[in-house]
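Example record

The entry below shows one chain as it appears in the dataset: sequence first, then structure tokens.
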Amino acid sequence: MPDPQHPRSTVGRVYLVGAGPGDPGLLTLRGAECLARADLVLYDGLVNPLLLRHSHALAEQTCRVDGPAGRVLRQDEINRRLIEAARSGKTVVRLKGGDPFIFGRGSEEAAALSDAGIPFEVVPGITAATGAAVYTGISLTHRDHASAVAFVTGHEDPTKSTSLDYVALATFPGTLVFYMGLHRLGAIAQSLIGAGKPTSTPVCVVSRATTPRQRSVTGTLQDIASLATAAELHAPSLVIIGDCVRLREQARWFEDRPLFGQVIGIARPEEQADDTALRAVELGAQPLVLPTIEIAPPDNWEEVDAILSRLNEYDWIVFTSVNGVNGLLGRLLESGRDMRAIAKSRLAAIGPSTAAALRKYSLRADLVPTEFRAEALARELGPHVAGKNVLWARASRGRDVLPVELAAAGATLKQLVVYQNRDVDRLPASSLLPFERGEVNWIGLSSPSIARSLARLLTDDAKSWLGNKTKLASISPVTTAAAREAGLPIAAEAVEFTWEGLFQAMIISSGEKPEES
């Protein structure tokens, strides 16, 4: 029943959302919708932080132990936090690893919300058993091997009056999946053997399933405990037991991705790193965002606003970055105008990402050079601009290839700063620490300014790994030259001057087969 002291009309709503087992692509569409409308997100330590890109809300992490991520919260504290936030009128998402109602204590949170009269909704998630099995190549059910599957806790509440019936589990006609069983693996195996399960029964232990740090060990009930110990597997993990394990080599796919297990530094402004980080995940890598620079609007818009009123004077408008597109056209829309203001202008984009940014404004680039660099853009634009007025929407700093080359081609060029490219003072501790531990395999450098900024921001401990454990890939010869001038060794250089080209350079340098487009 609703609490009479807290009328329902002033109460927010709580969504108990299953975040899936780790891969950010496994969040449901409904889960993403809930995150988009949230005022507060309270998320578990097992939740992939990349999921927070779906929300602009305040996000707080609940921790299993006190540490850098925050203070440990008991379940009753979490329940109270949800109720208090909802009573203040907030829309709250409780983001939980896996599925909220499968070993996730979601039902306890739902009961607490119900008792407090808080409206709530439960959004199912892909449970860890499904994710671990599929990402390891194991079919939990199979018409020839298993007609049933049982989910079992490997870590029971010691206050319960009943315990697992291992005799029933040993004779279960299908696949057994133990959650949270890594630290009791030996006892689980011996209990099943003691209850009559054959010692030769196949077993697979999957650690950190569906993430780039996924590892799996296969054995039998007889030897799996010693094999898992030797492999130094980490929680969270699942134990899959049954004949279906024998078939995994025929269906494995995830661990064969070309950058699987690699930690890759994404040196981009934080607000622009999402798509690149997700592509790294698709290739099997663990992205680490390195915001070495930040993008900001101009100190004032006076010059830009003055140009907006006479854009029809320009025969060509040139864009050399996504930021340039958003800076000019975003301001155009904010001013109350629309794309008709540039109806008389032809548009040039330096590469496919910039051209894609134009398409978001329903515009198509008239010219994209075959090589995605300023020299090629100037060379291919040159024959079209003699005697023409050209507007370049640019950053506050950058190379001067375009002004020199276009002036030589006979253009009258107006350079318009529509955004600032600024160095940051320091890297976040969460980004720097993996470098200092030697845990980063690659860093992608996508511009000369990013290369110079990274060289300035890395500590001596981080730099000690460069060229050895940590390799650097450059997006272009110009970026390579700037990096080497700053003392950074380059191990690979992209053929195509895009982030996709950077990833392919890393793959080739690692000795893997390039991804087919």
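Notes for this example: The CA atoms of residues 257 and 284 lie 5 Å apart. Residues 65-69 have pLDDT under 50 and may be disordered.
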